[in-house]
Amino acid sequence: MPKVKLTDLVLRDAHQSLFATRMVTADMLPIADKLDKVGYFALEAWGGATFDSCIRFLNEDPWERLKKLKAALPNTKIMMLLRGQNLLGYRHYADDVVAKFVETAAKNGVDVFRIFDAVNDPRNFQAAANAAKKTGKHIQAAISYAVTPFHTIEKYAELAKQYVDIGADSLCIKDMSGLLKPYEAYDLVKAIKKVTDLPIEIHTHATTGMSVATLTKAAEAGAEILDTVISSLAMGTSHSPTETMVEIFRGTEYETGLDTALLLEIAAYFREVRKNYKKFESSFLGADTRILMSQVPGGMLSNLESQLKEQGASGKIDDVLKEIAVVQKDSGYPPLVTPTSQIVGTQAVFNVLFGRYNRLSGEFQDLLAGKYGACPASKNPDVVKKALEALKLEKEITHRPADDIPAEYDKLAEETKKLLGGGDVTVEDVLTYAMFPKVAPDFFKKRHEGPVVFRPETEAPASPAPAGKGEAERYSVMVNGTNYDVVVAPAGTVAVAPAGGAGAAAAPAAPPAGGSAVPPGGTVVSAPVAGTLIRYSVDEGAAVNAGDTVIVIESMKMELEIKATASGKVHFLVPTGTQVTSGQAVVAIQ
User: Fold this and answer.
1) Are 36 and 73 in contact (CB under 8 A)?
2) In angstroms, rounded to a whole number, what is the distance separating the alpha carbons of residues 471 and 489?
3) Mean pLDDT of all residues in 434-453
4) What is the radius of gyration, based on Cα positions, of the chain?
5) Is the N or C terminus of the chain more exposed, i.e. has fewer CB atoms within 10 Å?
6) Are strands 112-116 and 78-82 parallel, antiparallel or unpaired?
């Protein structure tokens, strides 16, 4: 038996970290046979942001991905990353939804449930752990690692004991940002080994350049399993190369027993696949030691870059990284891992763009109010007060947040039936809708078109198709991974249609009743950020006062309330579901 086992993250965290979780299943299946022969402890292939990305960007059913991978990997355990009571969404779910999700994931192919909670609140583990135990699958409880005044080795060891009590089969030290230093990893593993004999797995990103040394020292301290990534998708914001770790341990007492020649074949395959996703690549490809201060996890860096570009604020990345440290402290030092990384990171963006805490996302308000569980430290009371006032709460929540959520699966099933036109619906579709109710409806409409197809940019035509005098010219343009046929008529008229239909963007909804022209006089309210107008907070024509919420925009996966800047009657200028740009007029008040 090998002394050290490896879990390869190539099918999930590697592409989540390097190119915004865009790898399609069609690029995974051709190499599955070789991956299945390696002898990994597991392949992490599902969960995290893959579910969201499948339906939001790839027009691909994540449940079908899981089934196909399970069929293609009969000899290798599939691991998924599960956010405890959050599952894969950005809120806590009722216990009945948690149980149904875990049961369905196990049935469709998940063998190892790596369960974590963003604030390390053991109460948020229990429902998912109980459900996983009923399936007979492996439960791995992950400790979200952070470097703050309140995260000590002693406290991590105490946390490990609590995770043993919830029924874990193994433990994971989940270092999202590459902050775990080699000698501290050694001491941490030793400390945990004193309180439990459960196997320990180490997950540490390469972002700060320390990961190879950290994995080596963790193995020396007794960690039995290490997370790695095949070399062609390793390093940068990803993880240590699988082949590198195999060779480091070869001939030692930590021998992995894996075949480097086979691994090199797999690396060659993914080296070619990576070319398909060049447009999504993060610029953080080396070691970024700024993260030692900001503590931003690798997967968030590439998303943060694209989000700032969307807001027209690409040059503010360093300001945002500095502000993240402030926001993390003010919110009680939560470890920065999904969803807290997104919540804290987006709030830092808002602080940089609009002034510190002048605008609070709905999710940041919930974090401060205790709706995500108990944060490790006390919070900034002034910011908490603002959040509680916005939520109309008298005090922070101190009990298990999910205790306030009544059973909701049956209600979600009925909503899904209505959405799909009645009749029976699958459990998988209900759970897809439950995870992402704003994204799922559009996905269900387009699902039959099939997944998007990514190719190297050099394959796209560099010039228009030849056109005779007076004839329309045709161009092929790729936007966000979707190919479009653009026809320019002689008169200058432009028509755009999705190439082949797959992954087509939905046509804009019709303007609201009364048209979208700005009425004469009055006050115009503009969108402060780019995003999607997801709902109106009042009716068309309603009388509002300055400071009342009139619409809600989803920006950077967070909800932002937009308030009236004057008193009067509301006139909406764009319909719900519209993608709006920063500065675009969205509401008129007369």
Assistant:
1) yes
2) 7
3) 95
4) 24
5) N
6) parallel
What is the rounded distance in angstroms from the CA atom of residue 555 to the CA atom of residue 534? Answer: 10
DSSP bridge partners of 143: 173
Residue 343, token pair as written in the block: 């919540």
- Residue 66 phi/psi, 5-degree rounding, is -60, -45
Residues 531-541 have pLDDT tens digits of 889 889 999 98
What are the CA-CA distances from residue 362 to residues 254, 257, 549 (Å)?
Answer: 48, 49, 12
Q: State the Cα–Cα distance between residues 164 and 116, nearest whole angstrom.
A: 13
Distance CA 539, CA 492 (A): 40
- Using DSSP, state whether 175 is helix, strand or coil: strand
Task: Report the amino acid identity of residue 545.
Answer: N
Closest CA to 110 of 65, 172, 144: 65
Map tokens 């089969």 to a residue. 169
Q: Rounded to whole angstroms, how far apart are CA atoms 499 and 479?
A: 11
Cα(first)–Cα(last) distance of the chain, in Å?
Answer: 75
Element (H, E) at 253: none
Q: What angle do CA 82, 86, 87 make, to 5 degrees?
A: 35
Instruction: Give every CB contact of residue 278 below 8 A, 6+ residues apart in sequence.
Output: 456, 457
Strand order in the sheet with 549-555: 558-563, 549-555, 531-536, 579-580
Contact of 133 with 165, CB cutoff 8 Å: no
Question: pLDDT of 550-580, one tens digit each?
Answer: 998 888 667 888 888 889 999 999 998 888 8
Which one, of 189, 154, 139, lies nearest residue 4 by Cα?
189
The answer to pTM > 0.70 is yes
Can you read off the two tokens belonging to residue 471?
């004839």
